[in-house]
Amino acid sequence: MTIFQFALKRSFSNTTNLIFLTLFPVGAIFLPSGEEWPFLPYGYQYFGIIVLFVGIRLASIILEDRQKGVVKRLAVAPVTHFGYLSQNLLAFAVILVIQCTILVYGGVLYGHELYQPGWLLVLFISFSFSSIAIALAWISLYRSKETSFLVYMSIIFLVVLLGGLLVPLQIFPDTLQRIAVIFPTYWLSEGLEWIVFGNEISEFLMINGVLWLYTIIFLVIGSVRRIN
């Protein structure tokens, strides 16, 4: 069994992971639409929150390996640290892409008005990769899986609130609205608004470009920080 296959198997071996990876995304399809806000059905507005949870749950598998000394043993194994990390990340990416695809086209089949489902899928995939990269960088700061997860959960609430996923960003003071720009959830929120109202494709490309910039930066940080 390859590292890629093993990572896929481990991702679904935990009951909590199984719920986040299957039941929550499918359940999100059946959530209703709001009257004035959000512009898309609630399940699609709040899907970013699910993705952030999924990201840290999947990345915690790598932290668990580090706690058990698996990463140290790679030094004498016929697989490189890069090979180990890349195969794990590839497994996580496959899971997230499938999850996003089910949500978007499941919603189309269900009858939701998603305006531009193809671009919505691109947006969700971009944000999903950002969430994995951020989670990877986050776990590189910790030795304890439990501590890493609990602190991250606390931060997620702040990030999704200020990012405009839980409530409209316009209700916050101008200072907080300017601060929100640094959060990837802000760009997801902007992307969701573009899906409904946007005309200029350049705006959408810029939104995805920012999310991919987050992905690259945090992927590098999470990859080079190795706890010995």
Task: Write a concise synopsis of the structure shown.
Helix content is 74%, strand content 0%. The chain has 228 residues and is an all-alpha fold.
Mean pLDDT: 90
- Count up the domains: 1
Structural class: mainly alpha
Order of helices and strands: HHHHHHHHHHH
- First-residue to last-residue Cα separation: 26 Å
Structure overview:
- It is a single chain.
- The protein has 228 residues and is mainly α.
- The chain has one domain (3-224).
- The protein has eleven helices and no strands.
- The radius of gyration is 18 Å and the shape is globular.
How are the SSEs ordered, and which strands pair?
Layout: H1 3-11, H2 15-29, H3 42-45, H4 47-67, H5 70-73, H6 81-110, H7 117-139, H8 145-162, H9 174-179, H10 184-197, H11 201-224
Helix pairs in contact: 1-6, 2-4, 2-6, 4-6, 4-7, 4-8, 6-7, 7-10, 7-11, 10-11
Tags for this entry?
single chain, 228 residues, mainly alpha, 11 helices
